[in-house]
Specification:
The protein is α+β, with helices and mostly antiparallel strands and 246 residues long. It contains 10 helices and 4 strands, in the order E-H-E-H-E-E-H-H-H-H-H-H-H-H.
Length: 246
């Protein structure tokens, strides 16, 4: 049974974290909103979850995953569900909770990235909140970004399974969805804050190494070069405004 991913069709956004997990696992899935309305897909299928009063448990926002009769929203919750089914999380309860904790922290970082260019309101244009965006992005570059990178670096350094010469992982000795999500966070920062990331990552070499290794993953390397991978753009969470990069 193929998974159905419901997300905006023109941006990576939060849906990309789910796509990476599905792609890395080689799972069969349909990116519903990128299909056609004639096939029962496209934007009407996505908007159904928000406009149809017959939906008993309406999600707040995409991404949404449908698997048979089960429907789950929120990126971290979707990955919590997919992890054991795609073999992208450890088998112990401690490993699953730790992986989920890392994912929730990545979600926190993602929200802060968004707020660098929309610190007042997501409904207003960037140009309408430029002074506030300058202040918010400066705080992110100088305080928050180094703090997040230091935390991820510490996790990688303290994972006893990360032996010299071995492939790096955040949890245990195998690929997890947290590794994929950290890759996506770093990849987005490379687009949105290339200067700031270059400065801050001097103290996070393991984070950069993990990013390089995930990019070379046997399945993901092909996906990242394919048309299925939506390019970063100025409509997603990661937006490149040179004036905010410092």
């Amino acid at each position: 049974m193929a998974y159905e991913l419901h997300y905006w069709p023109t941006i990576q956004g939060r849906g990309e974290f789910v796509r990476l997990a599905l792609e890395a696992a080689g799972a069969a899935y349909v990116d519903v909103a990128r299909g056609t309305a004639a096939a029962g897909q496209g934007m009407p299928a996505l908007l159904h979850w928000f406009k149809d009063s017959a939906v008993e448990r309406p999600p707040f926002a995409p991404p949404i995953l449908r698997h048979g009769k089960l429907v789950v929203a929120q990126t971290a919750a979707i990955l919590l569900y997919l992890g054991p089914r795609l073999d992208l999380v450890g088998k112990s309860e401690a490993s699953r909770l730790w992986t989920h904790q890392i994912q929730l922290t990545i979600a926190d970082a993602l929200a802060e990235v968004h707020d660098t260019h929309h610190p007042i309101s997501g409904a207003s244009y960037f140009e309408d909140q430029r002074p506030e965006a300058h202040r918010r992005s400066a705080a992110f570059r100088h305080e928050r970004l180094p703090k997040y990178l230091a935390w991820f670096e510490a996790i990688l350094a303290r994972n006893v399974h990360n032996k010299p010469g071995a492939t790096l992982h955040l949890v245990g000795a195998r690929l997890s969805y947290a590794d994929l999500s950290l890759f996506q966070l770093v990849d987005g920062l490379r687009y949105a804050f290339p200067v700031a990331l270059r400065k801050a990552s001097h103290k996070a070499p393991l984070v950069l190494q993990l990013h390089r290794e995930i990019a070379q993953h046997r399945r993901l390397s092909g996906y990242l070069r394919s048309e299925r991978r939506i390019a970063f753009n100025q409509h997603g969470i990661f937006r490149h405004y040179p004036e905010l990069d410092g």
